[in-house]
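ASSEMBLY PREDICTION REQUEST
Request ID: AP-0331
Submitted by: J.K., bench scientist
Number of chains: two
Total residues: 306
Priority: normal
Notes: Please return the full assembly, not individual chains.
Input sequences:
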Amino acid sequence: MNVPTEAYVALSGVLFAIGALGVLVRRSAIMVFLSVELMLNAANLAIVAYARHWAGFDAMAGLNGQTVVFIVLAVAAAEVAVGLAILIAIFRDRASTDVDGLAEVRL
Amino acid sequence: MVTFVVLAAVMIVGALGVVLLRQPVHAALSLVGTLLTLAVTYVTLEAHFLAAVQVIVYAGAIMVLFLFVLMLLNVQDVGPRRSLPGLRWAAYATAVVTATAIAAVAFWDGRPAPDPAVVSAHLQGGSAGGIADALFGELLLAFHLVGVLLLTGVVGAVALVQRRAESAFGAPKGTGLPERPGSLPDADDRRSLGSGGRR
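STATUS: Completed
Returned structure:
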């Protein structure tokens, strides 16, 4: 029943690495974005696991950790809204979301 | 422990599906499965409210937005074109090294787990009441800032996807922007909906 915190953190690291792999190998910008979501959720899993660990020593620490994950969810929602808007704007201009072709999108 | 191993296996398979499946819709659905499994993992970590929020907000709202945009843009999987030789293998090596390093450090620096009974008593099952105590108590500033952030996000998203007023009269030349095909907003509208064959 009592799975150690290390197991959850290791799983979180594996998920994060898979997400990073997706950012590196996928060429469609929307797939890169999906992989970033995977990395965000891996970080959330680590925070929840540590929150459970620290709840053993301090009641408020555990609940604070879970609340931080709640705030991260809200930030992720805002990020998705803006990111998908940027993707749609890019797609309107060039009818493609290939990240290799976006070299001139900079100031 | 068995529950955790099963959940971890499903989650890793789903994550690999996100990265390796060629159809974008399949990859997005694979991510939905991964997020739902993550919600179950939150339950095993005594974060019941977060599990519910994960299903509603992430697997529900955010992934629906993703699928909506995927189908709106009708993204096709383009063929492989390597800009740098060996880039793919370098990426795989990076992922394997990262995963191994994080997992090894986690186990190498393992701490003794606290008493499960104490944890359960302190977390109160991760209920909405406990989360609210923290959110409207110690983290009240973060709560306010998230409100500002969400408002900024909404305004930013609207500003990014709206059409500029001058595009109806033809964009001025030499602005450095690539010229849009079809300067009439009506034609542009239909084009952006991605319904390629209907025009």
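REVIEWER COMMENTS: Chain A touches chain B through 81 residues (CB under 8 Å).
SIGN-OFF: pending second reviewer
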